[in-house]
Task: structure prediction
Amino acid sequence: MNIASLAPLAVVLPILGAALTFLLIRHSRAQRAVSIGLLSLTLLLECFLMAAVWDGGTVAVSIGGWIPPWGIVLVVDQFSSLMLVVSSAVSLAVLVYATGQGMADGDKDAPVSIFHPTYLILVAGVSNAFLSGDLFNLYVGFEILLTASYVLMTLGGTGPRIRAGVTYVVVSVVSSVLFLISIAMVYGATGTVNMADLAIKLGELDQGTKTLLHVMLLVAFGIKAAVFPLSFWLPDSYPTAPAPVTAVFAGLLTKVGVYAMVRTETLLFPGDTLNTPLMIAALLTMVVGILGALAQSDIKRLLSFTLVSHIGYMVFGLAMSSVVGLAAAIFYVAHHITIQTSLFLVTGLIERRGGSSSVDRLGGLAKISPLLALLFFIPGMNLAGIPPFSGFLGKVGLLQAGVELGTPLAYALVIGGVVTSLLTLLAVARVWNRAFWRRPADAEHPDPVLLAAPGQPVEEEVLDDEPVADGAGRTGLATPVLSRAGSGGSSTLVRSTLMPRTMVGPTAGLVVLGMALTVFAGPLFGLSDRAAADMLDRGPYIHAVLGEDVTVPGAGAPAGGGK
Amino acid sequence: MSINLALLLVMGALYACGIYLILERSLTRVLLGLMLLANATNLLILATGGYSGLAPLFSKDTAAGDYNDPLPQALILTSIVISFAVTAFMLGIIYRTWVLAREDEIQDDVEDLRVAETPSFDAEDDAEIPAETSEFPLTMLGGDGQDISDHGPGSGDGDSGTREAGARAHGGTDTVVAGDREMPTEHAAEEEKPGSPNVKPSPEGGGQ
Result:
């Protein structure tokens, strides 16, 4: 037995963690230790999984020992293991950040105790969706992560969150029902829900039925991935959630939709029947999304729109159904999960330090907190695709694939991609100019927290439940000795409540991870290339699940069919 | 071996009612619509199990092909559990909406409305860029030495506009602001003339 047969643990460990943290609901310290510990363990395990399949080789694990076409299988290949590692790394960083936030604010007014179990269930659902080799199990994975996300979205039950939660829940449930209907129809047409088995049996259907099933699955996944005409719900619902929750949603949930779309396009319905509509959807997603971002003044909403916009790049890479395009799309997914999450985490820090997430009310943050400026600047430029960073590499890969394809539509997408990239730069630069570069005095109705100069003893800034530091700050003005002690004391206090190390640390970690994607872009692109070639070939996946003696139908696979 | 038409008709009616209901603005009706959709889908899954009249249970006399497919029923069971959880959660949300807002309707997104109402002109992004952006307005003096045309007619950048107005009002003599100091307008106008003899350019600009 090789290490890859430990794949089910990637789902089981977080669920176990959820159960444990639920039992420890009154002991917040133990709860934190358990959830962070178990998630780190999961991440470690997934790194081993990725190492095991790094050079190729797909591994399938039958759950409960049932033979594949009937039982449920979990499949580890390069794409799913890469997604697992990136998503777990990101969720670990967000978990540490959220824990830090809970510790800094005091746990008394937020239902943080329910946060840890729900969050771990979300992670389990994401892992299950990435690993699943069975269409219905994929549905269950989606439902696990969605149900957890409903709870996280409406955490605290305040008015705006409930309002946003209603939109989110209704849209998600409708997309789940669509998915379930497609599963029923697929089962009715083929008599199986095993994806490898489906890959063979769907090919034998007539073209009309195939297109119907294909479109229904793509629409269901398109709602989750927020592809343009189906993306309206995302910018309305994401920004109101707590900062770490928005960050993990933005990073992971839409990418699970993209992952499912990739599997649909490559494994279930290979060929190019729907490539033209997909490309048009990709173009519209990019352009409409980024135009929406330019109209926003709230950073969280702006980032939600850029999230929609950049989904377009991934759909573009997917729609070309060439190895180069798919490889670039895979790289782009990994890059985008990291960058988008770190930007949302930084926005959470901006909101704490500046008192608001609206660019109109912010100013001078570059001077107030250079570290914060750096943490925003690097992923911001990375998102816009400025040369040294991974965003640039991913975009260049996509553009190259588009030029290689050479159809007029592909050229239109290449142009659209460049324009979107420039407009993203404009959107990020607007935030940068206003929130970071201009004087705080130029901000409209700035928050008192922003105006308080650093290093000064500031009474308003200190939380009301800290009378000692408050008093020290005031008396410090009278006597020089006390002044030094007072101002030092209150400024460290300010730093610890506004920018706690436990929140800056994970954010910085994610920014570094984003830069590591740039540094290790070579091996990563190699991995995505192999993953894309394997997925378009379909042979390795089907053989891993159903055994070596199955003939893979070569219809439509550009790589020239099975082995 | 017959298709169960009644079941299919019920399924169609459930889908129709469900879709009608989720298009409503009232949350309770949306929830009812979602429940109908989920149940219609369960019937659809059931219909994929095979024709009615097939054997549901194992017995030694039945041939292998004459069994009803049990897998759809397992799938339905899962989907019932999931839709149960979602329905419970939605009821909770609807109750909370009622407690908070005393209404059952889906509310508009405030931030969306605000963005829609924002004028397309943005003072910071779209204001006319002054022809001369330097801190030294001397090069833009009008011919009479009175009017500072640094910011174009009529549109003054608020900050320095008021400073100039203040400078003009205070004392009897008109002054202009050059950098961080003031000088009488006559001197400034004198400096403006080409080849003016009294100009000894100081490092900060303007004359001594």
